Automatic annotation (TrEMBL):
<feature type="domain" description="MRH">
    <location>
        <begin position="100"/>
        <end position="230"/>
    </location>
</feature>
<dbReference type="GO" id="GO:0030970">
    <property type="term" value="P:retrograde protein transport, ER to cytosol"/>
</dbReference>
<dbReference type="InterPro" id="IPR012913">
    <property type="entry name" value="OS9-like_dom"/>
</dbReference>
<dbReference type="InterPro" id="IPR009011">
    <property type="entry name" value="Man6P_isomerase_rcpt-bd_dom_sf"/>
</dbReference>
<dbReference type="GO" id="GO:0030968">
    <property type="term" value="P:endoplasmic reticulum unfolded protein response"/>
</dbReference>
<dbReference type="GO" id="GO:0005788">
    <property type="term" value="C:endoplasmic reticulum lumen"/>
</dbReference>
<keyword id="KW-0732">Signal</keyword>
<dbReference type="GO" id="GO:0005789">
    <property type="term" value="C:endoplasmic reticulum membrane"/>
</dbReference>
<dbReference type="InterPro" id="IPR045149">
    <property type="entry name" value="OS-9-like"/>
</dbReference>
<protein>
    <recommendedName>
        <fullName>Endoplasmic reticulum lectin</fullName>
    </recommendedName>
</protein>
<dbReference type="InterPro" id="IPR044865">
    <property type="entry name" value="MRH_dom"/>
</dbReference>
<comment type="similarity">
    <text>Belongs to the OS-9 family.</text>
</comment>
<dbReference type="GO" id="GO:0030246">
    <property type="term" value="F:carbohydrate binding"/>
</dbReference>
<keyword id="KW-0256">Endoplasmic reticulum</keyword>
<keyword id="KW-1015">Disulfide bond</keyword>
<comment type="function">
    <text>Lectin involved in the quality control of the secretory pathway. As a member of the endoplasmic reticulum-associated degradation lumenal (ERAD-L) surveillance system, targets misfolded endoplasmic reticulum lumenal glycoproteins for degradation.</text>
</comment>
<keyword id="KW-0430">Lectin</keyword>
Amino acid sequence: MRFYHLILFLGHTLAEVFSDEIIPEYNIKLFEEQREHSPDAQTIHIRQFGQDYVCSLPSKLTHAKTIEYVNQMEERVSSDLKLAVDIIKSLGTKYDKKYDNCLHRLSGYWSTCFCLFSDVSQYRSLDSKLLESGITRIDFNQPHFKLASFDNVDWEDYSNFKLNTNGAKTRYLEQTLTGGDICDKTGKERVAKVHYMCDPEHKFPSILEIREIKTCVYEISVSYPELCRVYPFMNSMFTVEQITCSLIAKDEEHNKIEQNGSDHLNLRDLNLINLGHNLYMGIHETLGLPTVLITSKKIDAANLEEIDDLLQDCLFAMIDLEKRKQLLSPLENNKESFVSQKDTFKYTVSLYGIGGVHICDLMMEQKSDKQIVAEVITGIEPKNFIEFNGIEIIHDS
């Protein structure tokens, strides 16, 4: 059996040099339905907003960089979403319920009237002379339908909003409105999905498009010039590459690691946590398997110097987990306590590289003399903690 040893003494100040390249601007688009991905495409599985997605990556973006990029995505999207909703709410002081502030669009047999904070209606075309003014009043003597209403909107319920990107550059806020007239075909209320956006070609508030995407479900795009001057509605001035992610059905059977061979890891089964030091901790939440480590470095398993560098990364990450009190004690009677530098333990773990390729198994041992040692192991199945403060940890087989 061959061993590679690396010893660190705890409590020393460590100088760290990070050489990560600047990540180019990418747009991550989440689709709620399953989509086909090219068999030649590089893919990765991520979890966002409590759901699992499979993503196709641009050729220049690695798995590890994608994990790094999306690691803070949920927090960033949530912050941008709240800001976008607040901006639309602020337009109420200028575009209120008065019908002379409504937007109209003539489109064939029907015309559309969009009144911010009031309702969305369709009606027979008004006289063309009225339409030339750009601001018109709806003629209630003509047949009309209410497509949706703002009456029951809860502006604090962000689940009714989505911040998305149309194509590569145009950002918009989608709001789902209910409360429309009953549809004679479905027996349900009409629904409208409003897309608020900035269109630089329109200097005045405008209805850009309206279409019926499903029976009595309408999609309406509106542009307000005020949005062109504020983030997050400002359109990107740079080329943006797409990371397309489609929802994985919850009832779809999870692939076991064994399906790809014992030396290959399916990232889909993992909840990935960024540890720093080019490492991610992979937690098998759904399968109940031991935690694994994933490195973003490109490693040749036969290169002893690179293996030593990996062991050093693992030790640094373990030390940080102890300092931040983020690693729970494995003892059942200490569920609320965390591993510290005062504890002794043996911790075994499998280490994988980019794409889920198995690199090696290793054991980290923290000794009573405040030394922590990492070594490559073979012939031992990694089960994480196997000994803690002199007590053997028994795992279910």
